[in-house]
Design goal:
- The chain has a single domain, classed as Nuclear Transport Factor 2, Chain: A.
- The chain has a four-stranded antiparallel sheet with strand order 1-2-3-4, covered by helices on one side.
- It is built from three helices and four strands.
- With 117 residues, it is an alpha+beta fold.
């Protein structure tokens, strides 16, 4: 029974759903077997399948680990600030951390940004 409880705890220890227009974002804190916490961010959109004639949910998931929180938050904050003000961050550098997804994906054929809408 204890093993079952540990598996449940690893599955999810905190969850928050944010409804935003046609999308819902799920922020789920989970824990590894070594008790390290990480975050999954899931975007869910309701879509209609013409082939099957019914609705389904399209989901995209991102896993974010503790060692990346600071850089992730910095990038997210700077990007939001740019969208809101048009201000380019003072410490903006042209390296892999600040390249656009299209520039980075030139070396990664699996990434497709054409469906972002």
């Amino acid at each position: 029974m204890e093993e079952s409880e540990n598996n449940e705890r690893r599955e999810g220890i905190f969850s928050r759903a944010v409804r935003a227009g046609k999308r819902t974002y799920f922020f789920d804190v989970k824990q590894t077997r070594s008790d390290e916490k990480y975050l999954t961010i899931t975007e869910s959109k309701r879509r209609f399948s013409n082939d099957q004639g019914k609705f389904f949910y399209e989901k995209h998931k991102l896993f974010l680990y503790g060692e990346d929180f600071e850089k992730f938050m910095k990038g997210l904050t700077e990007s939001i600030r740019f969208i809101e003000t048009g201000e380019i961050p003072v410490d903006f550098e042209d390296d892999d951390e600040t390249k656009s997804p299209e520039e980075i994906s030139e070396n990664n054929e699996e990434v497709s940004f054409e469906d972002l809408a």
